[in-house]
Amino acid sequence: MRKCFALMIFLASFLLRVLQNLELVHAVGCAGSLFNVNSTYAQNRHNLFSTLASKVVANGRLYNDSLGQNPNRVHALVFCTRGDEQACISCVQKVTQNIQTSCPNRMDSFQWNNDDVDDQVSCLVRSSNHTTFQNLELRPAVIHPSPDSIEPSKNTTLFSKQWEATVNRTIQVATEANTSSLLQYIGAVKAEFTEFPNVYMLMQCTPDITSRECMICLENCVAYFKTQFWGRQGGSVSRPSCLFRWDLYRFHGAFDNVTIFHAPPRVQPPENDKKGKGIRLGGIIAITVPAFITLLVFIGLIKFYVRRRKFNKGIYGKVGRAEYSDSDCQYMLRFDLGMILMATDEFSSENKLGQGGFGTVYKGILLNGREIAVKRLTRGSEEGCMEFKNEVSLLTRLQHKNLVKLLGFCHERDEEILVYEFVPNSSLDHFIFDEEKRSLLTWEVRFKIIEGVARGLVYLHEDSQLKIIHRDLKASNILLDAEMNPKVADFGTARLFDTNETRAETKRIAGTRGYMAPEYLSYGQISVKSDVYSFGVMLLEMICGKRNNSFEGEGIAAFAWKRWDEGRPEIIIDPFLVEKPSNEIIKLIQIGLLCVHENATKRPTMRSLIIWLSRETISIPLPKDLAFTRNESQSEDGTMSMSSVFTKLSSR
């Protein structure tokens, strides 16, 4: 009976180990600039990849090559460390195919293939648009933690110390000089711990870098794992120049020549104390193990399969964890900083989308393929901190197709990061104020954008569970999706109103000069009509295709009113729209002038605007009694100084 019981435990343990080994497969690292899949660069990469498998065998298992002319030149490095020639060829063919499938349009890519169950082959393939041979390459990084965590124990401190000692020993073995170029930077260590299972650890670098560079690369891998996934029962971090992996079981053919390392034991307790603890521990084991061992084995198997299904989706497919704020119990998604770093290639300049007043926006790609926009707020900025809190508290409760969607946030260490849906066509100002791209904005597209922004503001002012004044509406804060649908963004300076509150005052003026209503700029008076004014300025910019501050110091509203008063409103229409329905465009000029009225009470509501925009036969009030600044009221940045305007108006 005991033999059968022991056999069952052994088989269960063996099955778990094999399944774990099958599950832990290195992903492909993708980064760098994008290229078209039908481009010359893509064809050069495909042609170069098709030759690597045969050439690496003929060139001593380490081969560097390039193909094409700049800017379409592709560089590749391939490296085999184990296996016969056919195994090496098969490995390289498999990896090149994986890269082309997983990184179809990224210039920097790599994959270490070190997890074949038969342990017969190990290889690396990497490609880039710049030479990487004999250069230390640290980005991108791919991390794969074990799905299982180390069981809580009173000796985790001891485990940590012994693990660190094993790391140091493995780095030493890997970076020691070796006569064989293929084994120049590879270290495989079996560490015999005192109170834990043995630890197997592998470190490996490409042979083209120096010993010092190898050490830097490996130390980066170890630090990355410890920072993001310490507590997991094994895992790996790979970079283009090196690989680090550890586990509680033998996983690699390199362990045929393993270095045995005896981890330092802990300081022994007094003899009496040891004896007492041993008696107590022995009693507990004698009582509990026979009763529960079978149950634990099968629970462990079930638990593993559940985790295995989740793990198959990719560790970065699970982008965050749900949290609730203390104040209003609203749902928010928190991203781990490690996920953000991986998605943005550690905030690479190549992924930078733009620079704002309080931070920088980067494009990111999660390993589940989802594209995101990451706003990294300026460290130590009080205004940035306020913007972070404001956006998280507001956008988590707003859902509308014409508002940018906040996916979550990250508040780790000294980083404050906001994660949004990725909107591929950037912001409206990149189109409307660009001489070439503006031609893409037909009247139909412009009207759709104007109407969409208006609907987003109606939602903010009237239809959402909150009443919100945006306070910084302008072309650069209107994002455009793939179908050129607008999404209002940047709620860092937005103001939350009570449902029945109509107006408030503030001493903190936030926004952009030229788009601020005069009563807000001069007296800090905020209402929904503040956004109406900003919308009117933006609408007039859409019609004429010029910035507000480009009208000889008077601003677009004053310029448009003069042409209207002269009976020549068509003068302000963008030349790209001259063949479009002028009556409909002039109708929108009329609406824009009503929105920028100096008297807030005479401006329409956004609800009225939606009605005017959606009906062709409806009576719209004529703009009148408007007054605007002259050149003497111009501010330093070329926009209108509304303070002097309002002073003149109030004295009438």
TrEMBL record:
Residues 631-652 are annotated as: Disordered. Residues 347-618 form the Protein kinase domain. The chain crosses the membrane at residues 281-306. ATP binds at K375. It is found in: Membrane. InterPro entries: GNK2 (IPR002902), GNK2_sf (IPR038408), Kinase-like_dom_sf (IPR011009), Prot_kinase_dom (IPR000719), Protein_kinase_ATP_BS (IPR017441), Ser/Thr_kinase_AS (IPR008271). It is a single-pass membrane protein. SMART domains: S_TKc (SM00220). The keyword ATP-binding applies. Residues 1-27 form the signal peptide. Keywords: ATP-binding, Glycoprotein, Kinase, Membrane, Nucleotide-binding, Phosphoprotein, Receptor, Repeat, Serine/threonine-protein kinase, Signal, Transferase, Transmembrane, Transmembrane helix. GO terms for cellular component: plasma membrane. One of its GO terms (biological process) is signal transduction. GO terms for molecular function: ATP binding; protein serine/threonine kinase activity. Residues 23-132, 145-251 form the Gnk2-homologous domain. Pfam families: Pkinase, Stress-antifung. This is Cysteine-rich receptor-like protein kinase 39. It comes from Brassica campestris (Field mustard). The lineage of its organism: Eukaryota, Viridiplantae, Streptophyta, Embryophyta, Tracheophyta.
